[in-house]
Amino acid sequence: MLTRLTSLLFPERIRDRAKLTRFVSGEASYVAQRSTYEFSRNTLAWYGQAAFGDPKFNEVFAVCRWEAFAAIAADMMVIVRFHLDGGEEIDPGLLRVYASALGEYPAPVHRPEGWSDRHAALLARFAGVPSDHRPDLKAMGHRTGVMIHEHVPARSKNAEEERAVLAAAVTFGLISFKDRLPRRLDADALRKALGHAA
Length: 198
Prior knowledge:
Oligomer: single chain
Low-confidence stretches: 2-7
Largest sheet: none
Structural class: mainly alpha
Mean pLDDT: 89
Order of helices and strands: HHHHHHHHH
């Protein structure tokens, strides 16, 4: 029990692509699930229990959750890129981490062709911004929150407020992710691992 507690309080440092993939995938999954589920549950209020028992509703919710996962994982890759400060040499390795995170699961039903458009979008983000440019987490959270709102399975009449709620949830998740990076990532080892992955 003490060993497990120690691993929770002092987790192993991430030094390679595979562990970075697992870390980003897990963190993005958590933020996507939490933000989309809580938003839908709060919007539906007492109708939520019935809605989440409806297969058609869950099909739409699954699309929302998947798209949120892909967008949040991309945001997290931008944050990791800045944290590692490895220059453009590590970009191909980071792109492979992102592709691996999305590829950990079978392609969702609504994306039979996979995630190539999301890969291209992250490549364009990397190409358009120097690696030493500090990410604006609030702007990233707002953009991703707006995108998630396009896919949510239930809405009220106040779209502006709903987008703000989703943006705040995503932004909080990104800030929490960023704050954990110094403790979790072995930057020197990852720069070498990602640079060699090109």
